[in-house]
């Protein structure tokens, strides 16, 4: 009998082949950039494994939806920080770090958004911060697009080129990779909490 993690992996691969998989991917990518805690890589990777020919299409969907979600996060910060944005940051325990961070944000804002778009840290904090500090919208959109595209196209490109070996590796070390994923996710929150 398969363990629950293996069943979840198989289910994800099955969903990745579903006719509505692209909508799921877009929804997760959008939500990740503004309020959802799980990154879109959890959908992007199995979809690229399930159909390598569409890897770059999936990366495009992921990038586009993530940038639109980032613009939504920007709007939360710009228009609704007191009523919504503050609560999102408090939920993640990042309010103090956000206050310190936002004071210096606009000096390097475009570069910060770019690097945050590439890194395994909670991107939504940076989209909301961009709106609160009123980072130029054009700068924000260019940096967001560049950072997210670099990240998702790199993932898709690796899976397109090395699909079967990567799939074999993932299936062999699924439990270890899952633990590593959550360590990186939690580590991203710790980086924001203690190093920013």
Textual characterization of the structure:
The radius of gyration is 17 Å and the shape is globular. The protein has one domain. The mean pLDDT is 80. The longest helix is centred in the middle third of the chain and has 37 residues, at 55-91. The termini are far apart. Helix 2 (21-32) packs parallel to helix 4. It is an all-alpha fold and 196 residues long. The chain has helices at residues 4-16, 21-32, 41-50, 55-91, 95-118, 123-132, 137-161, 163-172, 174-195. The protein has 9 helices and no strands.
What secondary-structure arrangement, pairings included, does this model have?
Blueprint: H1 4-16, H2 21-32, H3 41-50, H4 55-91, H5 95-118, H6 123-132, H7 137-161, H8 163-172, H9 174-195
Helix pairs in contact: 1-3, 2-3, 2-4, 3-4, 3-7, 4-6, 4-7, 5-6, 5-7, 7-8
Q: Based on DSSP secondary structure assignment, what is the total number of beta strands?
A: 0
Mean pLDDT comes to: 80
Category from helices, strands and their pairing: mainly alpha
Q: pLDDT below 50 for ≥5 consecutive residues: which ranges?
A: none
| Whole-number count of domains | 1
Helical stretch tally: 9
Tell me the distance between the termini.
Answer: 45 Å
**Order of helical and strand elements:** HHHHHHHHH
Task: Give the proportion of residues in helices.
Answer: over 70%
What fraction of the residues are assigned to beta strands by DSSP? under 5%
Tell the overall outline.
Answer: globular
Instruction: Report on the biggest sheet.
Output: none
Please state the CA-atom Rg, rounded to the nearest Å.
17 Å
């Amino acid at each position: 009998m398969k363990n629950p993690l293996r069943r979840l992996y198989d289910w994800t691969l099955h969903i990745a082949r579903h006719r509505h998989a692209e909508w799921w991917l877009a929804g997760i990518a959008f939500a990740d950039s503004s309020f959802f805690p799980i990154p879109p890589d959890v959908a992007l990777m199995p979809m690229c494994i399930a159909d390598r020919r569409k890897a770059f299409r999936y990366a495009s969907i992921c990038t586009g939806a993530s940038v639109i979600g980032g613009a939504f996060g920007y709007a939360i910060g710009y228009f609704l920080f007191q009523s919504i944005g503050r609560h999102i940051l408090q939920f993640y325990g990042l309010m103090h770090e956000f206050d310190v961070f936002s004071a210096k944000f606009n000096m390097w804002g475009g570069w910060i958004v770019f690097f945050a778009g590439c890194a395994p840290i909670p991107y939504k904090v940076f989209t909301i911060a961009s709106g609160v500090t009123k980072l130029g919208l054009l700068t924000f959109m260019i940096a967001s697009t560049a950072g997210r595209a670099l990240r998702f196209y790199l993932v898709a490109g690796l899976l397109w080129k090395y699909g079967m070996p990567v799939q074999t590796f993932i299936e062999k070390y699924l439990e270890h990779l899952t633990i590593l994923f959550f360590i990186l996710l939690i580590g991203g929150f710790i980086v924001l909490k203690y190093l920013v």
